[in-house]
Design brief:
A hairpin with a 4-residue loop joins strand 3 (about 310-320) and strand 4 (about 325-330). The protein is an alpha+beta fold and about 375 residues long. It is elongated, with a radius of gyration of 31 Å. It is built from 10 helices and 7 strands.
């Protein structure tokens, strides 16, 4: 599932939840007005606060929550008893305060959240305690409101911790991807520098006997140096922040994809079909490495997230026009435990690498079931 689909689903869920919340507030407002608990402006104010805070985050949400907490604490000293003495703010405003407590604990800037949540909790507890007509039920209502506020705050805090955990996981995956790119950069530079040195030594050895052979050797040295510098610029652009020490392992090539397919294991009955067509001898090593990593990441995701896979197809081809390398990995399995059969943070790194090489990358479900990962990269790389 790509990022645009994720954003659409997130907006859809937010919209549905928002409409449901407005429906609940409307029902509570009707109850408040019918029982004469509060005046109509209080109900409208509560609905406005709910709509505003639901869409805010960070400092803005924290500022609004702190301001609301101060106002509500101050208002508890000026409230006159209504039809329901224990809830002078009414059901609507009380519910909105609980909502703001949860949102502040979830999305507000930490310092402001630490100020807003206690203030809002205090306003809930002080509602019945500051009433002029205190009854036996007053302490019970205060305790119930305090418990509800604590539950709302704990729920928001749990959501904050879950979001932080996911962000850390994504950061770790991105760092691992950058480390892998740094490893490729090391190997690619070593590959081309070695070739340049060999060409230079050959030019020196034939200079005396065959002077006419020196010029073609120098041209090949220039081409190799230009290709190496182009690849270095592309890969360095992907390293947005300094990474850890890279693993100095050999780069994978298209020829090595057959070894990946041979060693793949995800079930006893999985049939792996590998098709490689075209001539890849003159394809730059960074393009071959990108194709190799697409297959590696796709196979890793199938092993981790897919189940009931019967057929796995790997297609690698070189198209004549436009000159490009196409890699496609498909499976007919289904996601395990709600995960997509090919999902993973590593796919975003593959997309970045394909785009940096002037190509494209897609990953998504296929009909009727399964998952397909496809990358298309210019055979000469980006220039």
């Amino acid at each position: 599932m790509d990022s645009s689909t994720d954003r659409f689903l997130e907006r859809l869920v937010r919209g549905v939840v928002g409409l449901a919340g407005l429906g609940v507030l409307l029902g509570l407002g009707i109850v408040d007005l019918t029982m004469g608990t509060v005046l109509a402006p209080i109900v409208l104010l509560a609905a406005a606060v709910a709509m505003v805070t639901w869409r805010l985050s960070g400092r803005a949400l924290g500022t609004v929550a702190v301001g609301l907490g101060v106002i509500m604490v101050a208002a508890t000293r000026e409230v006159n008893p209504g039809a329901i003495d224990a809830l002078p703010f009414g059901l609507t405003m009380t519910t909105v305060i609980l909502l703001v407590i949860g949102l502040a604990a979830w999305r507000a800037e930490p310092v402001r959240a630490a100020l807003a949540v206690p203030l809002l909790l205090a306003s809930l507890v002080l509602q019945p305690l500051t009433m002029l007509s205190v009854s036996r039920a007053t302490p019970v209502v205060s305790l119930a409101l305090a418990l509800a506020g604590v539950i709302a705050g704990a729920t928001g805090l749990w959501a904050r911790m879950l979001r932080t955990s996911r962000q850390r996981q994504a950061t770790a995956e991105q760092l691992a991807q950058r480390t892998s790119i740094a490893s490729d950069l090391h190997d690619y530079v070593a590959h081309h520098v070695t070739g340049i040195v060999v060409l230079a030594q050959a030019a020196q050895s034939v200079a005396a006997k065959q002077p006419q052979a020196v010029l073609p050797a120098l041209e090949r040295i220039e081409a190799a140096g230009d290709e190496a510098m182009t690849a270095i610029r592309r890969m360095v652009a992907l390293l947005h922040e300094p990474g850890s020490q890279a693993r100095l392992t050999p780069m994978g090539t298209i020829a090595d994809i057959a070894s990946l397919a041979d060693h793949f294991t995800s079930g006893d009955d999985v049939k792996v079909r590998l098709t490689i067509t075209g001539d890849f001898d003159d394809v730059p090593i960074d393009v071959q490495s990108a194709a190799h990593r697409v297959v590696m990441e796709a196979l890793t995701n199938v092993r981790r997230h897919a189940e009931e896979v019967r057929t796995l197809e790997i297609l690698v081809s070189r198209d004549a026009w436009p000159d490009a390398v196409t890699v496609e990995v498909s499976n007919d399995g289904r996601g395990r435990d709600g995960h997509s059969a090919g999902g993973g943070y590593g796919l975003s790194g593959l997309r970045d690498r394909a785009v940096a090489l002037g190509g494209s990358f897609t990953a998504g479900p296929r009909d009727p079931e399964g998952w397909t990962v496809q990358a298309r990269i210019p055979a000469g790389g980006a220039r």
